[in-house]
Amino acid sequence: MIVIMSERDWITWHDHYDTPGSSLSRHAPDLLTTICDWFEQDGFERIHLDSDGHYGVGVHRYTGPPRPLEPGVRMFTFL
User: I need a labelling partner for 37 at 20 to 30 A (CA). Which of 19, 25, 29, 44 fits?
Assistant: First the structure.
């Protein structure tokens, strides 16, 4: 995961179940906890996680040292 974060920055993410390209599904495999694991393995602390069966919402706080953007790394591509 490439991130530019300062210590104690927060990130909020969400996904909708059963939409094309969604990482979440009401059917196996449900990746909600996997997504949380990805953040937590990369220095984020889970603050909140909620799912109502249609949407999944997570909030994580970065707890590691500041990370600058590496030269030559592209963050976005606009089409």
Answer: 19
Task: Give one DSSP letter per residue of 21-34, joined into a string.
Answer: T-S--SSSPP-HHH
Residue 44 lies in a domain: yes
- Tell me the pLDDT tens digit for each residue of 31-54: 788 888 988 998 899 999 988 777
Judge whether 5 lies within some domain. no
Cα–Cα distance measured from residue 79 to residue 61, given in angstroms and rounded to the nearest whole number: 30
Of residues 3, 34, 29, 1, the one with CA closest to residue 17: 29
What is the reported pLDDT for 59? 92
Q: Which amino acid is at 23?
A: S
How many other CB atoms sit within 10 Å of the CB of residue 4?
12
